[in-house]
Amino acid sequence: VIFAHDTIAGLTAGVDLVNSEQPGRDDLLDAAGLDGFLDKHAFTGRRARTDGELEAVRALRAEVRAVWGAPGPAEVATLVNRLLVEADARPWLTDHDGWAWHLHFTATNAPIHHRVGAEVAMALADLVRMGELDRLQICAADECRAVLVDFSRNRSRRFCDTGNCGNRQHVAAYRARRRQALAVQSFGDRS
Ligand SMILES: [Zn+2]
Ligand SMILES: [Zn+2]
Fold first, then answer.
1. Which ligand is closest in space to the CA of residue 93?
2. In the 3-class helix/strand/coil scheme, how is the chain assigned residue by residue?
C-alpha cells in the first residue's frame, strides 16, 4: 500500500491534534500553542487569533479522537462525514507558491478549524476507501492513550511519539527479563 503525501500529512496532523491533549498536559492552551501546531503542519490561511478560534480547534480533538474508537468503517464514515459538513468542505484545485496542482478543501479565508477539520477528515476518508482503518492504533505503552497511525509496511508500529513510550517500554521489558534472570540464578545457587 502506498499512501499519498496528502493522506500522510492529514493523518499526521490529526494524530498531533488529538495527542495535543494528554493527561496533565495540553499543548493548545493559547494562541502560541495553536501557532505551533499550525506551523508544524504548514496550515496556511486566515487566522483570527481569537479565543473562539482556539476553542473551535480544541473542540475538534474529541471529534477526531472518536474515529480511533469507532468499531468499524460505517461508524468512521459517519464521523468523517460529519467532520466534512462541519468544516463546510468544498474541494478546489490550486498550484499556489510553486507547488504542483493539489486539492484544498476549504476556501483560503475559511476559519482555521474548518481547514484543519477538512484536511484531517479527507485523510481519514482515504483510509476508509483503501480499507486500511487498522492503521489507526492506540499507543501500546501502559497508561498512555495517545493515538498513532502505523504507516509501516509490516504494521509493526506500537508506540506513539508524544514522549518516549517506546523507550520506556523497552526499559520495562529489560528490567523484567533481568529480574527473571536473577531469580533463576538465585534459585540455582540454592540448589
Ligand atoms: Zn496547498
Ligand atoms: Zn504512548
1. 1
2. CCCCHHHHHHHHHHHHHHHCEECCEECCCCHHHHHHHHHHCCCCCCCCCCHHHHHHHHHHHHHHHHHHHCCCHHHHHHHHHHHHHHCCCCCEEECHHHCCCEEECCCCCCCHHHHHHHHHHHHHHHHHHHCCHHHEEECCCCCCCCEEECCCCCCCCCCCCCCCHHHHHHHHHHHHHHHHHHHHHHHHHHC
